[in-house]
Design a protein that fits this description.
- The chain is an alpha+beta fold.
- A three-stranded mixed sheet has the order 1-2-3.
- Helix 2 links the parallel strand 1 and strand 2.
- The radius of gyration is 15 Å and the shape is elongated.
- The N and C termini lie far apart (54 Å).
């Protein structure tokens, strides 16, 4: 038996430049705990549900979606 026989062939991925709330949304919708990260067609990393949760855990009462909304609009106002 080979890895190719057991691997997932139709990967759901996310671009490295995407906001973290999009990764959380994809994982929630698809029931995933891990999401491969792609840049220029190459695998550059893996984002996990636990990593997303722990990145803001305790630092604020805002959700990851609220934090990304603030960040996006902050940069839009500066442009």
């Amino acid at each position: 038996m080979y890895v190719r026989d057991e691997m997932t062939k139709d990967l759901i991925t996310i671009n490295a430049n995407e906001v973290i709330s999009k990764a959380a949304e994809i994982m929630s919708e698809k029931g995933l705990h891990r999401l491969p990260v792609i840049r220029n067609g190459q695998l550059v990393g893996l984002v996990t549900k636990g990593r997303i949760t722990s990145s803001t855990n305790g630092a604020t009462s805002l959700s990851i979606f609220e934090l990304n909304y603030i960040e996006i609009h902050h940069y839009a106002l500066q442009s």
